[in-house]
Amino acid sequence: MADLQAASTVPASLRVHQFHGLQPGPRLIVLGAVHGNETCGTQAIEALLPELDSGRLTIQRGCLTLVPVANPLAFARGTRQGDRNLNRRLRPEPEPREFEDRVANVLCPLLAAHEVLLDLHSFHTPGEPFAMLGPEDNTGSLEPFTYAACESAWAAHLGPRRFVEGWLDTYAAGVAERRARAALDGALPAVVQDAQYGVGTTEYMRSVGGYGITLECGLHGDPHGAAVGLHAIRQTLAWLGMADLPLVPPVGDPDVMRLVQVTDRLHPDDRLAAPWRGFDPVRAGQPIGWRHDGQAVCAPEDGWVVFPNPEAEVGQEWFYFARRSPRRLG
């Protein structure tokens, strides 16, 4: 009986809303709560649904798919993940073992059926909203891509003035460092040594021929985050020409940064050197964190601290380091 009760508390489905215009157009999918404690996307989608249901907003061209809660188990628990991080190593699993594997087996075909993805997130420490861009066009083996101009032009209309690139290649370099550590002590599970562990929703979307942006709407629980997400959805519909909505001008003087290094937390007593906010500037040689044995982890050059997480699990991302990017939007 206890096992039956436990099973009944695990969600068995994803709630998906779909709106088809009667004229041809792009296929857009919007996700909320890929991480269960990041609820701004859920709130933004739930705010949009009454407009669509009442006819105050009409999808006239293409197809809009809304998934308010992409990870219902983590969302129900109010945690980042259920059994594992859905936004890492995202791919279909022929033999699903964890809850997120079963979600991936539904979510990945859903993503592949669309052309454009807007994924709404929030972050750990205070800071202003920003958008995560994919790579520039390339034919490399890690993340080949041909829609950089589309992503760039679209991103400029979403609202934030700050943009970040370099996710997957920086994460791949971090995986290489994990492998080197594991070769010495064998302490890290094999999954976080997987070269594809950094593949999340937008990376998967690009791998199946589409393009996408992760929009970080603000601090977890910030009541303004939902408004940031809702504005971004409406501007995406306007930019794609799916609904008759006014398109705001592109952001002026965008601030584009490139991730170049990820640092993992290696011990429970590792601590950050300051209560960092996202994109706090640091100087070359300045301590960003302290290892449990007193060793400083210093900035390799002048740059910025990104995604600082004082509560990171051992073996997981503790903070990223970024430098200014020469990339231009438009």
How are the elements arranged and paired?
Elements: H1 2-8, E1 17-20, E2 23-31, H2 40-54, E3 61-67, H3 72-77, H4 99-112, E4 116-123, E5 130-132, H5 148-155, E6 162-165, H6 167-185, H7 201-207, E7 211-219, H8 225-240, E8 255-264, E9 271-272, E10 280-282, E11 287-290, E12 296-298, E13 303-306, E14 317-324
What does this structure look like?
It is a single chain. The chain is of the alpha/beta class. The protein is built from eight helices and 14 strands. The protein has a single domain (2-257), classed as 3-Layer(aba) Sandwich (Aminopeptidase), CATH 3.40.630.10. The model is unreliable at 1-7 (pLDDT under 50). Residues 24-122 form the Succinylglutamate desuccinylase/Aspartoacylase catalytic domain.
Short description:
With 330 residues, this protein is α/β, with parallel strands linked by helices.
The overall pLDDT average reads 93
Q: Cα-atom Rg, whole angstroms?
A: 20 Å
Any low-confidence stretches, pLDDT <50, length ≥5? 1-7
- What's the number of extended β-strand segments? 14
